[in-house]
Amino acid sequence: MSATTTAGGRVREFVSAAADGWTRERFGVLGALGLILLAFGPSFQVYLFTDFLVVALFALGFNLLYGYTGLLSFGHGLFYAGGAYGVAIVLRDLGPVFADIVGSGISPLLTFVVGGVVGLALVVGVAVPVGWLSVRLEEIYFALITLAFGMLGYSLIIQDPAGLTNGTDGIIVLLGSVDIGGSSFRIGARRTYYALSVVVVLAATYGAWRVVNSPFGTVCKAIRESPDRASALGIDVRHHRWMTFILSAAIVGIAGVLRAGLAGVASPGLTHWSTSAIAVIATVIGGATYFSGPIVGAFVFLYIRWAISRFPTLEAYWELFFGALLIAVVLYFKQGTVGGLLLLRDRLLGDDGDGGETDAGGDGEAPDGDGDSGGAGATVPDDETRTDRGDDS
Amino acid sequence: MSLPSLVPLIGVADVVIGLSLGSRLFLIAVGLSLIFGVLGVLNFAHGGFYMLGAYVTLAVVTGLIDNFWIAAVAGALAVGVVGATIEFAAIRPLYDRVDADLDQLIVTFGFVLVIHEAVRFIWGSGSYSIDPPDVFNFSVSLGGSTFSAYRLVVIGLAIAVLAGLWLFITRTYFGSLVRGTSSDREMASMLGVDVPRLYTGVFFLGSVLAGLGGALSAPLQSTSPALGDQVIIDAFIVVVIGGLGSMSGAFVGAMLIGMMQSLGPQFISAGSIAIPFLAMVIVLLFRPEGLFGGIGE
Amino acid sequence: MTTVLKTEDLRKQFGELTAVDGVSIEIDDSEITSIIGPNGAGKTTFYNLLTGVLQPTSGSIWLRDDGEGGLADITDAEPHEVAQAGLSRSYQITNVFEGLTVRENVRVARISHEKTRLDFRSRASGDAALEADIEELLELTGLTDIADTSCDTLSHGEKRTVEIALALAIEPDVFLMDEPTAGMNPTEVTEIVSLIRELDADLDATFVVTEHNMDVVTDISDRIVVLAEGAILADGTPEDVLNDERVTEAYLGSDSV
């Protein structure tokens, strides 16, 4: 017994020594370095990581609604597809037009950017009415109506009454090559697209993080905890949920734009409920109450799936693993992977006592505290940002 | 024949096919609705249960006893046992949570994946079909069109199930407990009803019905691992339109959707698959209790 | 002597049952009013009508209008509109934002009051004036020491106090307290009673209290209104009301407390 304690003590000492001075900036630098290094990794790994980034953003957008206001959507695939189809249609129909105007050298990039903006606008345009109607309902009924909206979108894309979406085949996305001043590169090349995705996903994540820690986001968390209480304090819960719905859809829409370029196609399957379910799986596995939950969950989802695919006998049954994991997490450990990592860190650092909460309580007064922590303002978020660093390694 | 020109266009066979599609949908939806009405659980895995019922029936018929009816009963009961086990092990621990509804939905969604993969693991990815039982394996000609006599059997059985359930819920002691518990769980508990056991019982019953639906449909469709995902969405549409918790609503809703699946393509070309979802949205917004009746009817 | 809250012939039917049966009442801003009555007398339904959680079958509700000193009709207002109009409440079963810290709880209420809830760009804790207000309120309610504790780890009595802090954070004209001492031990009861007295003295809010504990009622009330079977049975000073035979009868005749 004493031997293990000493060993445990040593581990703890070591870890706290190692953890000492790991400020936000250092983690940032390390993360950036990791992202740059990865660009030189094997091509498939670059692709896999890009895939992770896109799914992470998808789940992050979804969780703005689920984790922060308590509304479980089974129809966010609609907005994922909205972004993808928006960019795909612009690329298909307007590519030549742009080439005529700005010249073919730069036009592929311009078209993609315009397409992205159009995709985002399309998603917001759909989310405004869909959200307004959906937030009239709660709990199971909200899950059902979003599922219905998603499948309504799926049906319309497949049947293509307006002749825009090319039915079940979807739209091929050709990103083309940019040619500026003699140097040329393909936007769709894995490493190029990776760089593009990193920039977009980081920017969107930062935006979401700001929202979550703003007065708006604080009210969201209150609504998740008790909608009645929130409205008794003068908060228009329905309106707030509607705004969150639109924001959440917009982030998912950005992920959809990136998905179209990565997959090379905008396909109707993106609107199907089984795609919406990916966001649910990633978020729940990661831990819905944490900002970083969906990101970590997406990481676990894609990399475990990849690991499983290395074993030909298991490859076909990866869904089984995630089904079981999902059940286990909901039943036994709702804090998910992030909650688990926090608990592990607290154990290793020897923070005794109240588990996951230690941190939130600990640096509640952080702003005037140790100058190294980049001015951690809010209490809980600081807790969460630390775990963000976990998935860079 | 001086019937209006619309009638030959529809054809008796289309109607019979529509009603038989509706019947199989009813068997899934009524269990789903019953479970929601009493337990407040929306069982995402109910389509998986239906599929499992079809597979077990197929396996028994082709591998054990060459008697369709015994196999169908075996399929239904096997699914009942699976359902009761899932309720006991994975749904019961969640009733007291603040967000029980959503947690239970997510857990049952986990079982969608598990059942799907388990079926693929055991029976492979191919699709199977069997002939209807010999007695009914003949075609009926009516009004110039032909259809399998077995379809009539399925329709008849669905009606029998509706009647049986209705009698069971309104006329038996267990039924009165079910009704009491669905309207006020705490009160029922205080009056001495063993609510957890009753819940498991209702979940068993709902699962048996889904399994029976799958079993009876095995001769009418090709059974593949994708089946569960396909029918669960139809079942959601049916229970929403009919009213979550309503049995007669499930019947009417199922027949409506069945007829639409059979006749729809002839009348509305573009947008026809979108209509059920549109209907679902409209009902949820304007009549969330469904078009027909309330809990327990 | 100004009326801050008024109901006129307020009525609520649930099917056959009349839960609130023609209640007309005027609450004056100079007194603490207690609303008492046996179980099932309609107190909680009455509160739910006042706060917009339930819509009355008939009758009307009026609340002091900040501008003119007159009264504004809030009969059809939704709960958040009622709160914005200046009517705040605490719940019989404590209802706070469990997963948030005490400070964050109060911050939510202040954000709502300052109408900055749609600001998604600044930091929630970045507004110095807002933080100062929060600090002041925490001090006033004696919550400073546990300000950074998550509410789900608080004791029942502490949660009650958080509820009071929340309700006061929106600077209400009227504060409806639903059974503030329910489920508390004697020490906690003493503490909360003295807190209510202090707050009533310090703040502009008018306190309306429902309560089971008769010692508390006689201790804090300037006026007592007795509800029985949804209607007003007696209304007056504590002495008058408690000596009223009909009141004794109503309590003893039904579910005695």
TrEMBL record, chain A:
Biased composition (Basic and acidic residues): 383-393
Parts forming coiled coils: none
Positions with biased composition (Acidic residues): 354-371
Transmembrane segments: 27-46, 52-71, 78-99, 105-128, 140-158, 193-209, 242-265, 277-304, 316-333
Keywords linked to the UniProt accession: Cell membrane, Membrane, Transmembrane, Transmembrane helix
Annotated compartments: Cell membrane
GO MF annotation terms: branched-chain amino acid transmembrane transporter activity
UniProt-listed InterPro entries: ABC_transp_permease, LivM-like
Region (Disordered): 354-393
A GO cellular component annotation in the UniProt record: plasma membrane
Membrane-topology annotation of the record: Multi-pass membrane protein
Database matches in PANTHER family: ABC TRANSPORTER ATP-BINDING PROTEIN, HIGH-AFFINITY BRANCHED-CHAIN AMINO ACID TRANSPORT SYSTEM PERMEASE
Protein name: Branched-chain amino acid ABC transporter permease
Organism (species): Halorubrum persicum
Automatic annotation (TrEMBL), chain B:
Superkingdom of this protein's organism: Archaea
GO terms of molecular function: transmembrane transporter activity
Transmembrane segments: 68-90, 102-123, 149-169, 198-220, 232-255, 267-286
Coiled-coil region: none
Listed GO biological process terms: amino acid transport
Lipoprotein in keyword set: no
UniProtKB keywords: Amino-acid transport, Cell membrane, Membrane, Transmembrane, Transmembrane helix, Transport
Topology class, membrane: Multi-pass membrane protein
Keyword Isomerase: no
Cleavable signal peptide: none
GO cellular component, as recorded: plasma membrane
Family annotation (InterPro entries): ABC_transp_permease, BCAA_transport_permease
Family assignment from sequence similarity: Belongs to the binding-protein-dependent transport system permease family. LivHM subfamily.
Name under which the protein is recorded: Branched-chain amino acid ABC transporter permease
Natural source organism: Halorubrum persicum
UniProtKB/TrEMBL annotation, chain C:
A cellular component term, taken from the record's GO annotations: plasma membrane
Keywords, sorted A to Z: Amino-acid transport, ATP-binding, Nucleotide-binding, Transport
Keyword Aminoacyl-tRNA synthetase: no
Cited Pfam families: ABC_tran (PF00005), BCA_ABC_TP_C (PF12399)
Residue stretches making up the ABC transporter domain: 5-254
Gene Ontology BP term (one): amino acid transport
SUPFAM superfamilies xref list: P-loop containing nucleoside triphosphate hydrolases
Molecular-function annotations in GO: ATP binding; ATP hydrolysis activity
Stated role: Probable component of a branched-chain amino-acid transport system.
Family: Belongs to the ABC transporter superfamily.
Name the record gives this protein: Probable branched-chain amino acid transport ATP-binding protein LivG
